[in-house]
Amino acid sequence: MSLVCAISNEVPEHPCVSPVSNQVFERRLIEKYIAENGTDPMNGQPLSEEQLIDIKVSHPIRPKAPSATSIPAILKSLQDEWDAVMLHSFTLRQQLQTTRQELSHALYQHDAACRVIARLTKEVTAAREALATLKPQAGLVAPQAMPASQPTNVGAGGEPMEISEQVGMTPEIVQKLQDKATVLTTERKKRGKTVPEELVRSEDLSKYRQVATHAGLHSASVPGILSLDLCPSDTSKVLTGGADKNVVVFDKNEEQIVATLKGHTKKVTSVIYHPSQSVVFSASPDSTIRVWSVSGGNCVQVVRAHEASVTGLSLHATGDYLLSSSEDQYWAFSDIQTGRVLTKVTDESAGCALTCAQFHPDGLIFGTGTADSQIKIWDLKERTNVANFPGHSGPVTSIAFSENGYYLATGAQDSSVKLWDLRKLKNFKTIALDNNYEVKSLVFDQSGTYLAVGGSDIRVYICKQWSEVLNFSDHTGLVTGVAFGDNAQFLTSAGMDRSLKFYSL
């Protein structure tokens, strides 16, 4: 029986046997296989050249194949082999071309898929933002015709007319301001020092906790609520101004947006809700003051009283006039019925930007804060600076007059709140806050019993004792606005984390 190589299936010239698989191999072939793989080709077990065992046999002359016994037969064999190689080469070239086309097609599909994924991702982001903005609007109030009693001043193109000329303080206007101040002073004296029976007591106030939060009022792409106000006649109506350039009216009870007012070209930093009309006001670094109809959902007037960012806004007790302050160093007094600027004044000796403005409850005097840490008290009728309160060491960020008419609270970038007595014109109390505490909003409740501070967190102090009764740190960003509900039945706040929060028992 002849030996046959397990690899070539031919009679080996130098046969050897593998002790691992007991198979016979041509030594030349098995050595190459071991050099490449290091294993037995039959069972994959480890095998080395030293393990191979030579088989001693007499070398017979292998017979030639019948087809290779003559020259023509050998040439025929070579020709057949050449033809087979050519055919195989042609087949390989065809397969290569097909593979190239398939690869090119796959690359085009991949590129198209990447484009589709990018577009879908963008659409999903926009849809999520729209959903976050529109979620509370399930019961959005349909725009109604604007009452005739409200101010309207619309140009031919449907856009509000921009009015900026100064008219001046007429005797009639001065008399109107004086009459209103007399009425308010008389009412305050009648109330005396009595606290309203409905006012929440401090021991109940200290038990307040967060009861609701709403994050869908303003755009998620430009996060941040920068200003906050409540409607004085219905404190369930909340007004906010955002970094997304929008003004939003929100109903606390219905938990839905009543109106989203768009028109400012920059962020909205000040908002005011009119106490008796369905009208709101907003101011922005785009140097405009806008008057909006809530029921109509549109801008009815643009007042251009300033040449730079409008930093403060305050409504006069008559509800007919608007005070504004600006980085252009001027304060302006405008008529909201006509949209005209009645007077515009600056302290030329100071030469400093104004950072905030607030009317005294009687409306005959008001305060402004400056970038060089001064608080200035102005007489509106005479348009003169009647008192200055130095003491802060940074730009004044917020001022608030108490309803009792005697106290003024001020905050600045020095981590403190100062209380001033307007009768004695001096600072009688300084509330030192934590290091690096940023004061952004100050507000007294309607009775003048409590003072709320908004900034790095929210703190509520009881007046006269000036002790802290509440402290909230629920916001994840800076608190930019705080406000009391009617008789302090609830507290609301807004911040740079885009959320509007409510606190009560």
Description:
With 505 residues, this protein is of the alpha+beta class. Helix content is 20%, strand content 35%. Strand 8 and strand 9 (256-262) form a beta hairpin. The model is unreliable at 137-165 (pLDDT under 50).
Helix and strand topology:
Layout: E1 15-17, E2 24-26, H1 27-37, E3 53-54, H2 71-134, E4 162-163, H3 171-191, H4 202-205, E5 209-214, E6 225-231, E7 234-242, E8 246-251, E9 256-262, E10 270-273, E11 279-283, E12 289-293, E13 298-303, E14 310-315, E15 321-326, E16 330-335, E17 341-346, E18 354-359, E19 365-370, E20 375-379, E21 384-389, E22 396-401, E23 407-412, E24 416-421, E25 426-432, E26 439-444, E27 450-455, E28 458-462, E29 467-472, E30 479-484, E31 491-495, E32 500-504
Parallel strand pairs: 4-13
Antiparallel strand pairs: 1-2, 1-3, 5-32, 6-7, 7-8, 8-9, 10-11, 11-12, 12-13, 14-15, 15-16, 16-17, 18-19, 19-20, 20-21, 22-23, 23-24, 24-25, 26-27, 27-28, 28-29, 30-31, 31-32
Question: Can you tag this structure with a few keywords?
Answer:
505 residues; five-stranded mixed sheet; four-stranded antiparallel sheet; elongated
